[in-house]
Amino acid sequence: MSDEGQLSLRKAESRRRSATRAVTMADVAQAAGVSTQTVSRALRDPRSVGPDTLARIEEAVRETRYVQNLAASHLASNRSMTVAAIIPTISASIFAETIQGLTDVLLPEGYQVFLGHTDYMAGREESLVRSFSGRRPDGFFIIGTRHTQETTALLKRTGVPVVESWSWTNRPVDMLVGFSNHAALMSVVDHLVGRGYRRLAFTGVMKPGDHRAKERLKGFQDAHERHFPGVTPRVVTVASGPMVMATGVELLKLVREQHPDTDAVVFVSDVLASGALLACSGMGISVPKDLAITGFGNYDIAGQLTPGLTTIAIASRKIGMESANLLLRRMQGGEVENRTQDVGFELLVRGSA
């Protein structure tokens, strides 16, 4: 009988057995005509076997409908092949871009990502780190650099690589891929003052746990003090509220009520700035003649508005990809020379300012 005929018989036999009991790795090995060790090695690292052997094993897996027992595999290898990712919110597309970059690098290497969100609450972040640690991930990716003492201690005790992101600190838990929110807002103020604006206001939703928003506010205040020494900066914020365009309209109204002669409004986020910019025509406000508006994040809508929204662009997907590369290097036993990477930011000047 030909080799092809023998392979077909082995597959048929494996299918008959799988109809009455759980399919094992030995069944896949028999169907593919290789050893169980070869199947195990191929499933763990597809690059460890030749392309023809891998193709036979993959076909045998499909034919036998084999589902790998990852729990047993993880116990044997002491690796879970997972990365825990913790982000502030799942509703912001800009964070989704970062997670996309993270998974684009990790998935081809066989790592799965499980996701949790904090809703900007430090206590919830601590609970997530504790819960995820019990699942023994091979690494952590976290948006943010400020944590409770217990969260920091938990992360260090795991003994696995950790990458913080989307901010900057001189004392990262382990590794860092981020940028300075403070410096980014200073550049916005510098630009506005350079264009002749003098009565600037900062506005946004400032949730207690949103430290990146606080860093942006501090950047605004420091730059304002540098340009206008002794002049109290105009700050109009709310402690809660949805991060939607309608909130931006309400914040614009608050700024106009409290500081009617304001000639430039610096929003903490593009979402809020976009809502305000769209509402200006209905409020009889000419942008940028009567009022300049800036945002943060360079969301897709920012460049589609009329006038376009001046904003800070962040390489959000790059943050995820670089973070994944750092994690991979460490998870695969390598060394990392540069544990911090500053991806920077870009001021995009458009018609709104």
Automatic annotation (TrEMBL):
Gene3D superfamilies the record matches: 3.40.50.2300, lambda repressor-like DNA-binding domains (1.10.260.40)
Keyword Iron-sulfur: no
Name of the protein: LacI family DNA-binding transcriptional regulator
Alphabetized SMART domains for the sequence: HTH_LACI (SM00354)
Pfam family, one: Peripla_BP_3
Highest taxon listed in the record's lineage: Bacteria
HTH lacI-type domain sequence ranges: 23-77
A molecular-function term among this protein's GO annotations: DNA-binding transcription factor activity
All copies of domain HTH cro/C1-type, residue ranges: 24-60
Alphabetically ordered keywords of this record: DNA-binding, Plasmid, Transcription, Transcription regulation
